Amino acid sequence: MKKVTFMGGTHVDSFKELTSTYESKKAVPPDFVYIPLSQHIGAPCEANLCVGDEVLMGQEIGKTLGFVSAPIHSSVSGKVVSIEKKAHPTGRFVNCIVIENDKQDTMVASIKPEENPESLTREQIIKKVLDAGIVGLGGAAFPTHVKYTPPEQTNIDYIILNGIECEPFITADHRLMLEYSEPIVKGLGYILKATGAKKGIVAIEDNKMDAIEKLTQCCAEFSEIDVVVCKEKYPQGSEKQLIYAVTGREVPVGGLPLDVGVIVNNVGTAKAVCDAVEDNMPLIERMITVSGNSVDTPGNYVAKIGTLFSDLINQSGGYTEENNKILSGGLMMGKSMYSDEVPITKGTSAILVLKDEGQELPKEHTCVRCAKCVDVCPAFLEPTRLVVLTKTKEFTRLDEEQNIMSCIECGSCSYVCPANIPLLEYIRLGKQGVIKSKKK
Ligand code: SF4
Ligand code: SF4
Which listed site, 13, 145, 150, 419, has its alpha carbon 20 to 30 Å from 370? Predict the structure, then answer.
């Protein structure tokens, strides 16, 4: 079996065995959902209902205020009890529509099977993707209809479905590929039609052989779709690294996948596209991993958008320790949460609960010039040099000579550094300095 990969990167302990072999469960519907009006990159939505209004499942409750945006729908039927600011997985406080769930799941009438989805035009498919509020489900949450509407004269050669999931602990995409392989492949078919791309590729790491087998079977009847196997390595799932591994094309610094004729979508996004095209179903639930060494029974759930982290942690048997760290997303690139009273959004792929052993951060030593950080950097940067220039506040050199802004913040450099230098923390400071100095 041919396997491809990118240059640089490292191997991290995966801890995926905690959840990867167990079938996902439908999460128990919560009494209340807290649906943020900002769940995507771009303009937040505006509430189009009021406190006291009755609402149906799948009803649009947040309308877009710009092209780079995506509407938001209710994940339950019930009554709006408040519109208030609430903590968000990004760490900000954003307006949320709070709905008391009547547990009837009464859906809007427009959610019904499309009579002849194969006959839909490119424009009709893109409109359905927009109306369904679909955004990238891998975490970036970029509005999907925008990706399918590139500037004129842009030729798209490849659609790559990202089934890599290289972050430790997370297995949501793995389970999705095993349990929903057909809608994923059908969704890819609709994406090919919407974009005019000739080739579809499902990229999967070689630590998910069962998913590779399943998707290969599903794709067998489609000559325009292939499954490509990637070697297990972190951060293989990062967009530019994946494009290089699969196509050999290099996205230029500051450029987009479109510049090399590629669109990358998460496998979950493809399933959401299929649901929207075939059933007119908006994006109101997603697969999410709840895992870590301080949650009783780790697992994967299909959960309604707006469910609180605490609800899902309780359904996983609750905390096994008193002191915990909670992360939204993966161990390497996820964000630390100060509370579990945070709702899941369209972009939330995992909740990690880790034992907080109160350890102090390891002592930082002097750089021993081993160059391990340079070897692993998938963006071909010199992390140790970036740290020196950040400390001396040479922001123009950081930007123009060292391309600091092309750091994808994967954390590989910090992970391998034998001197415990928090390279990524310094690099983030350097990037902030570059942004500020450019504004000046
Ligand atoms: S965090 Fe940035 S500098 Fe460090 S390895 Fe990743 S891309 Fe390179
Ligand atoms: S990995 Fe750490 S010790 Fe080695 S060169 Fe990079 S910064 Fe220095």
Answer: 13
